[in-house]
Write a structure and sequence with these properties.
By secondary structure, the protein is an alpha+beta fold. The protein is built from 16 helices and twelve strands. The protein has helices at 10-19, 34-39, 42-45, 66-76, 114-132, 145-154, 159-167, 172-182, 194-202, 205-219, 229-243, 249-259, 268-279, 284-300, 343-346, 362-369, and strands at residues 23-24, 30-32, 50-52, 58-61, 82-91, 100-109, 139-144, 262-264, 307-310, 323-329, 332-339, 355-361. A nine-stranded mixed sheet has the order 1-5-6-12-11-10-7-9-8, with helices on both faces. Strands 2-4-3 form a three-stranded antiparallel sheet. Helix 6 (145-154) packs antiparallel against helix 7 (159-167) and helix 13 runs antiparallel to helix 14.
Length: 374
């Protein structure tokens, strides 16, 4: 494995992180693959370099730092709050550019003042970039998955549809496709034979499970099946239920209006409040948390002048739960991060640990320092 040369400003970055109370940690390059495959999202999953141990355990080259930093915290159980700093290579298959590049960042775990922690992540990333690129004009884009989830929930969609939409947050193409499906009248599931279709039409889930059990035993599939006939039948009924759901024109317009919101961050609290009032949605809790974050950003000294809120903005990692943000210059993203409150519990923590963090793209920063195209 070729090890790229670390950017010359590595020590400066780690010193800036240490000034912000972040403890530097070492994360092994070889990682267990399952946590990334289960929790990182499709965009990252398809770009992971996978390998296998001599015992058959699935391993991978480190594709990002957040998951392994959290796993390390859970293993060592040092208590919270904790701020961790990291630096090193990550490995991802990419169509353009190298498959190995350097990242550095901070993960802030266990800070119960979530608005202040969010503000610190946004400001620390921006301040670090300002130190490395003096005079560069940074553009900050923020989104909020919690607000999006609150809007989706308020529309009264079934849980399955809510899950689909939430997973697509930040992917404009996928969201458009799902909204297109929701705008169409219900249609039967394709490819069903008459016997299955009849049981589905009758709402007989037990009958379908029995039929599948019979067919799977007859074909010899039962011993190799990863799911039971009852689980398959439940999934078929769930797909049929979801395919029959559609939003009326008014509700669909509400969702599209929300996703079209794009406003200076300073104006975003008022814009969101006006949207909720006009649409008749009760999303007060999500909006209060949003307002608290904007207030915390102002209090921290972070300038909102070049910051925008985009309702449809997300980042392509499944573990984000609230704030998502990016800092860019000249059209290139140099830093990005967000809140991931559910991740540590999913990885095995015994208690819920609020968490937020960011990563810097050091190869892009190095290119910007040299005046090269990024």
């Amino acid at each position: 494995m070729t090890m790229l040369k670390s950017p010359q400003f590595k020590e400066e970055v780690l010193a800036l992180f240490a000034e912000r109370g972040a403890e530097a940690v070492d994360i092994p390059v070889i990682q267990p693959a399952d946590p990334f495959l289960d929790m990182a999202g499709e965009d990252l999953r398809r770009r992971i370099f996978l390998t296998e141990s001599e015992t058959g355990k699935s391993l991978c080259l480190r594709p990002e730092f957040t998951i392994p930093v959290c796993l390390r915290h859970i293993e060592l159980q040092p208590g919270t709050p904790r701020r961790y700093a990291y630096h090193g290579q990550v490995f991802r298959q990419r169509r353009d550019g190298g498959n190995e590049f350097y990242q550095a960042g901070i993960e802030d775990l266990g800070n119960m003042d979530m608005a202040a922690a969010d503000a610190a992540a946004v400001k620390d990333a921006a301040d670090t970039l300002a130190a490395l690129l003096p005079g560069a004009q940074l553009i900050t884009t923020l989104g909020d998955q919690t607000v999006f989830e609150a809007v989706v929930e308020s529309l009264g969609l079934p849980d399955g549809w809510q899950t689909r939409l939430i997973r697509a947050f930040g992917d404009a193409g996928q969201l458009d496709a799902l909204l297109g499906s929701l705008s169409k009248p219900s249609a039967p599931l394709p490819g069903l034979d008459g016997e299955v279709a009849a049981l589905l039409s009758a709402g007989d889930e037990d009958g379908l499970a029995a039929l599948l059990d019979k067919r799977m035993r007859a074909s010899g599939l039962m011993s190799n099946a990863s799911r039971t006939p009852a689980e398959i039948a439940a999934r078929v009924f769930e797909k049929a239920r979801l395919s029959s759901v559609h939003l009326d024109a008014k509700a669909l317009d509400v969702l599209k209006t929300f996703l079209a919101l794009d406003t200076p961050l300073a104006d975003a609290p008022d814009a969101l409040a006006a949207f909720a009032r006009i649409a008749g949605l009760d999303i007060a809790a999500a909006l209060t948390a949003f307002d608290d974050r904007v207030s915390a950003l102002k209090k921290s000294g972070f300038s909102l002048d070049q910051s925008h809120y985009r309702a449809a903005f997300g980042r392509p990692l499944d573990y984000y739960t609230g704030l998502v943000f990016e800092h860019s210059t000249n059209g290139a993203v140099l830093a990005g991060g967000g809140r991931f409150d559910r991740l540590l519990t999913l990885l095995g923590a015994q208690t819920t640990i609020p968490a937020v963090g960011f990563s810097l793209w050091l190869d892009r920063i190095e290119a910007a320092q040299g005046g090269r195209s990024i």
